[in-house]
Amino acid sequence: EEQKLRDEFKHLGVDDSVSMKGYVPQSALRSQLLSADFFILPSTREPWGLSALEAMVASLPCLISTQCGCCADLVTPETGWKFNPYNSEQLTGLLSELPQISTQKLKEMGSAAHSLAVAYSPENCAHAVAQVLGRLGNRLGEGQISSRCYSTTRT
Asked: Are 6 and 30 in contact (CB under 8 A)?
């Protein structure tokens, strides 16, 4: 898959502008994100896609595969693009459009991406979990749900 993408970048004439980083250690992540214009997550299977959220916190518009769990929650026309990773024509079309997008438009999209991503801060997520647990506790106290837990063990 990676070689197919590299070949497509070369065919489109953008291979000098595209970096495929793979794993980046946490210590280098911030500088890598700050040097980018946008972020692409082309995964064919990704339960969530934390790297996309990290890129958005760094104010990068994103191209995120529809096979990433975060795609439905994070990608809007204001924050980036979604694509089917099995549809090479769709991805090729998006990649060929990227160099035509103005710097101002990328900044606006990056700002929108950042605004959306900060809602997923640890503090906000902890608050949301606490609210759900509080509602469950209230329902438990009202007898609407059972307090029994079921466990299975394998031998």
From this structure: no
